Every structure is written in C-alpha cells, then in structure tokens.
Amino acid sequence: MRKHRFAIRLLLGAALWAGVTAGAGKMEVQAAQPAGIVQGFPAPEEKEAVAPEGTDALQGNTFSCYVTDPNGNRVLGYRAPQDGITYLFLPRSVDISTLELTCEGRVQGVSKGKWDPQTGIWSGAFRKSGDTAVAHLTAGDAQVTVLQSELPSVQLQLHGTTLETVQLDKNIKYPGNSLYLTNTDGTTDVIAEDSLEFKGRGNSSWKEYDKKGYQIKFAEKTSVLGMKAAKKWILLANASDDSLMRNMIALDLSKELEMAYTTDYRYVDLWIDGGYQGTYLIGEKAEIGGSRLALEDELGVLMELDNAFYAEEDYWFYESLLDAHYTVKESVEEEDENQIRYAMASFQNALERFVLYLYQTPSGQVTLEALSSMIDVDSFAKYYLITEYALNREANNSSFYWYKDGESDVLHLGPVWDFDTCMGNEDLDVNQYYEHLHNPVMNRLLASPAFYGRVKEIRTRYDAAFRKLTGRVDSYRKQIASSAYMNYIRWNTLGEANPKGYSDFADTYGKSVSNLKNWLSGRYRTFHLQQPAAWAAMNETGTALIVHTAIPRETNLQAAVWSAENGQDDLQWISDPVMENGETVFYVDLSAYQSLGLYQIHLYETDGENYRLLDTTVYFRFL
User: Fold this and answer.
1) In what order do the strands lie in the sheet with 74-76?
2) CA-based Rg of the chain, rounded to a whole angstrom?
3) Of 44, 118, 162, 366, which one has the fewest beta carbons inside 10 Å?
4) Do both 122 and 164 map to the same domain?
C-alpha cells in the first residue's frame, strides 16, 4: 500500500474523486509627459450620457475627424464620453506641426488655423501634443485635442474582418492583415502588409475586460523593437492592472534572478483600424523556439498547470497526486500527434516520480542530490521566490509553466507569466504569504531543510534585485506617463470596480503608481522566508490513520479531516492529540471513509473561538 501526503490549495475546496484516475485526454474545442499636458491624472467624473457637443439630432449635425498617416492609414478621432472632447491620439509616424485634419460635420469655422470648407481640411491649428482647438458648428462647438506619447506605435489594419468580429471569438485566426510599427523617433521599425495573422488571446482577461489582448503572427521570423526574431508576438493589454507595470516588474525580477528563459516585452501604443486601443506590451509568446525556450529533443514539451481552462486545450492530463490538470502548450514535434502524446506521457511520468518522492520521504530526509535527479532545483527555488514575493495567487491555478527537454532531462519551472493581478491589487497586504501554504509542490519542498536552505541562499545572493524594484516603478512611470494619460482617456476605468472582483482601480493614475511603489517598498521590508512545518509520518493501522506532526502541542491544537469525494459532508474534528517522542500525534477514525483518493488534513491552533491555520497536508488512500 502506498501512502502519500502533501499540502494543497485551501481556496480550491474539495475535488470530486468518484471514479477519477490519472490519464490523458484530447478535448474537442469547437494592449515623458508631452508638452501641454498637466502632470497627474484627474479622477473620472460621473456624468450623465449626453449627445455629442455640436450635435443636432433633427438635422444630423455631428462632428468627427481623422488624419491620414504617411502610410495612407486613417487615424480616427475619439470622442470621450466623460468630457465630450474629441481626442486625436497620434502615432509617432505623424508630425503634429504639419497636421491636417479631415473633418466631417457642419463646420462653420475654427478657433485657430485654416479651415477649407471645400475640402473639409483643417490645418495649422496644432503644434505639439496637448494643443487644443475648437471647430464651430451650426449647433455649437466641438473641442479637439491632439495627444502623442513617447512610446513606439503599432498600427494594425484588418482586411476582410473587423475588430468587433474578432472579439466574438478569440480562437479564430484572421490572415492577410497589415502592421506598421514606428519607433519613438518616427522612423519605421517594421512594415508587414497583407500578410499578418491576427487573433484574440487571454482567458479571464478576455472575458472580463473591454480592453483585450491579441496575438499576431508574421509570415516569416521578424525582429520587433530589437527583440529576437520570431513569427508569433503577443499584444498584452494589462487591463486588470491600473499601474500598467506589474507584468514588467515581475519579468524584470525573473531576468535579475537569471531564470533560464524570461519572455521579453516592450511598451507601445496600439491602433486597430485607426482606432486608438491604449497602452500595450508587445513581446514574446511563451513558446518553444531557438530564440525563446530552446528545447531540442523530439519529446521536448512546454506544459501549463491550468485548472481553470484546461478543457479548452487539445491535449491535457489530470494528475491525481496534485489534484491538478496539465495542458500541452508547445511541443518540439508540433505536427505528430503520437509524438505529442509521448512527450506528454514522458512529462507525466517524471512529474509523478518527483511528487511520489516528496510524498513518501520524510521532510528531513529529502536531499538536494535526490531532487537534482528529478528537477532543476534552482528554477523551482527562483520561481517560488518570484511568485511568493509578488503574492501572485493565480500562479497556483493557471499560467504555471513547466518544461522538460526529453526523457533524459529533469523538470524545470518557467517561464514566469501572468502577474497583472498581484503586488497589492487583489487584497493581500505586504505581511501575508500564500505559496508555501497553498501550492502543494512548494509546501512539500520548503518543508525540506535542504531545499529551504537553497532558497535562502538564492534570496540572499539576489537581494539587490528585490531591493531595486521600487526604483523600477519610477523608471517605468517616466517612460509611459504620456501613454498612460491617453490610455485612461480611452478606457475610463480609474476609480471603477475591477471586473475580476479584486481591489478597485485607483482614482488617479498617480495614486495607482504610488500604491504599487508603496507595496513593493513595504514588501521588501517585511518579506522573510516562511518554512512549513514538517509532517514527520503518516500511516494506517486497521481503520485508524495515524498522523504525526513536528509542530509541538501548544495551547490547543485541533485537526480537521475530510475526504475530498463529497465536499466536507464527512468532516471530522480531532481535538485530543497525544504527545509521543516529542511529536503531536492525531488518531483519525477511517471507518466512516470508504473512498479511494484524497483526504485533506488541516491543523489549527485555537482558543475555542478563533482558529489559526498552521499547516495543511493531504493523505492519498489506496483501498
């Protein structure tokens, strides 16, 4: 009989176990403050919806405008509902000093510049970003403000589809589109005409936010803003992060900790079919490739622990020992289904061997030598430090990448990914910890003095990387301030509730940046490694489960035990532990439990009214 135990995520609750076995499955699955702009960001005003200024509904008297860039693409004006101003968000390819607006509507004259009623061209009114002028209409005035940030510009022109159509289904790929990427100095970085594939991307962010992420694919490998050439690139919206910085901060930390591979990104402004979409990150897709994750063996595979969206993937398996689903994100052999399955099976076998070792070996007997034969120890230690420091709870349930380069390779963690909801914007303060209690792998590893010692060494070696994160906030603010100003005119979400249900967005962009900086500063002062208590032994004797823990009996210890099959309908509280050889021992009556699978055991300290969780573990029962 095999007996196993490990810590699991408390927030996931109980899993259904009736008839479940580990296996593989293939599922059918039918985005420098410019002159003239005042520093800071005003809180959004609550206003009733009104007809656009200068509109006469009876006569259809409306105003709109656009400019044409040097590549012949229109850049459309955007009338902001919060203030009624028409904003022209301009890419770097457009020279403001020679700007000519094509206007539509009953314009009678303009406050400055030259108006040509025959052509509808308005020229000479603007000289720099932030300049404002007024078009006089038959039924009022229309204010126009031009804005241009300091970031590179990405302009996408869709052919044969519209953005609204793309947003109906993120999985549909649309070929034959065009991309124009302009550097900050106005020079061209990339032009790809009538050859670009475009699609949506994202899971919860795609569903919850109007500002969405996208994926583009060039016809051939292309370098973007100095990054290594590849075909696929991601446009990341950062819609759930009011600072627009958290992903970049986490990626910077990954690079500073010298993770084997960290995705590379750059800030840009994005336009699609002339409509401004806001501040985005463009960068590398987490994928296998010579310039990215360099796997070479035919069984090389990049996997994702994804309990939230695994059913949407083609290849996945359920790992019962971790109560987790793993999906194939990329494989070296992309076209051979059998090879993909072999690679997945190779990964699964290695994963089970590793977990069984943690499960069956007392914490004090786990060695780095043994671990190194199964995992890349430092990648696990660094991944833990990054996710725990950032308090990224989502990394336990999704966006948790593992990889393995064939049969002879060990398991690796990385690249780190998806840090837009952490670092204080989802109700966890600087004094809290999460990973060591709720990540089953990290809980078992950290209980080992050998692995815990290695984590302490790495934390000390890279202390400067953690210390200077607050300075990176200042650097990024200087870089993206003018773009962020434009972004929050286009997406008027400051001061609103976060659709994901986490902390509300800050009232101003300045406050969002201060919140992040203060959180990182406080985290550095208070962060100390936490080591879970070792569960020394666990075994069955007849109908009794005997649980030993190294936690000494203090005022009052209680254990909560239940099977995972039907929630907590068979919950037992064990209130009378005994001391044996310096260890606290609980005797659990198993006569009421008849199911194969997981039994959760949570240990609490209590004064009779309040309960403080000390540790969690899981017993895996084989009948």
Assistant:
1) 74-76, 64-68, 100-104, 121-123, 114-116
2) 28
3) 118
4) no
